[in-house]
Amino acid sequence: MTRTHTSPAVAFAAASAGIAIYSCMDALMKGLSIASGAYSAVLWRSVAGVLLTGTVFVARRQRWPERKALRLHVLRGLAAGLSVLLFFWGLVRVPMAQGVALTFLSPLIALFLAAALLGERIRRAAILGSVVAAVGVLVIALGQAQAGASVDVVLGALAIVVASVLYAYSLILLRQQAQLADPLEVTLFTSLVIGVLLALGAPWLATWPATDQLVPIVGSAILGSISALLLAWSYGRAEAQVLAPVEYTAFVWAALLGYLVFDERVSPFTVAGALLIVGGCLVAVRGAAPVSQSEAGA
Fold it and tell me: What residues form the membrane-spanning segments (predicted)?
């Protein structure tokens, strides 16, 4: 079989598109979380996601995952489920731009988890890019500190920090998943595990969606599924340390969508931080070697 190669830049571009689409889903989910609570919003989005991707999975007559892959699906679903629940609970309490800025801890944590758990060599370019991006996060934090924060905002921020740690671990698991399963399988089983996990507490913590929430729920599921497919494809073709910094681009989208949808203002600190973050992403992706599709399990 002829070995084909995917450039890290192509994988990075696909992951960037996935993050942009995911940011649009974040805006829908924040609105749903405000209306009916984060638990219900995440639960019904997961159910809709399972129905959408499950239909395609069955139509393609794909095989049930093997035991090793299934174990990864369950493990990542648990990590991602807890992460997304905490994130949207916190996002109700803080502006989108601030919330996403806090999630930038995830790529930095994932960078070193990749070395510890996957045996990846940390390149100097990846470290430098992460440092530059981290400075951007500090600039944003300085601007938010000057604005002051209530107890509710602090609790929301802490929830997002914990979510960031869990999300960093899920990024590493995604890299491992992508070696054993195609993007559709990864997307379906992640949503399935999250849905089953949240369904256990649904009788006490969830509410039925109102009629006017059905379109946003389905829309968020579609956007989330497309984003997950793009990210799974990308993580199957490039190292986690190459793709982790792409998470920083979510800030630009969060600032824009927060302003357009929720009338959340962006300070000069936020703009300066965003420029540093994007610059860090560009530095981190330079000089990476291509990963073959056969090595990626494609």
Answer: 9-29, 41-60, 72-92, 98-118, 125-147, 153-174, 186-208, 214-235, 242-262, 268-285
pTM for the whole structure: 0.75
Among 167, 296, 298, 160, residue whose Cα is nearest residue 244: 167
Rounded to whole angstroms, the maximal C-alpha distance in the chain is 60
Between CA 133 and CA 105 the distance in angstroms is: 10
CA distance 58 to 64: 10
Distance from C-alpha of 177 to C-alpha of 191, rounded to nearest angstrom: 14
Average per-residue pLDDT for the chain? 80
Helical axes 38-59 vs 183-199, angle rounded to 10° = 140
Q: Given CA atoms 31, 36, 37, 43 in this order, what sign does their dihedral have?
A: negative
- Name the more confident of 229 and 16: 16
Q: What confidence tens digit (pLDDT) does each residue in 59-104 have?
A: 988 888 888 888 888 988 899 889 989 999 999 988 888 788 777 7
Q: Which residue has the tokens 């946003």?
A: 216
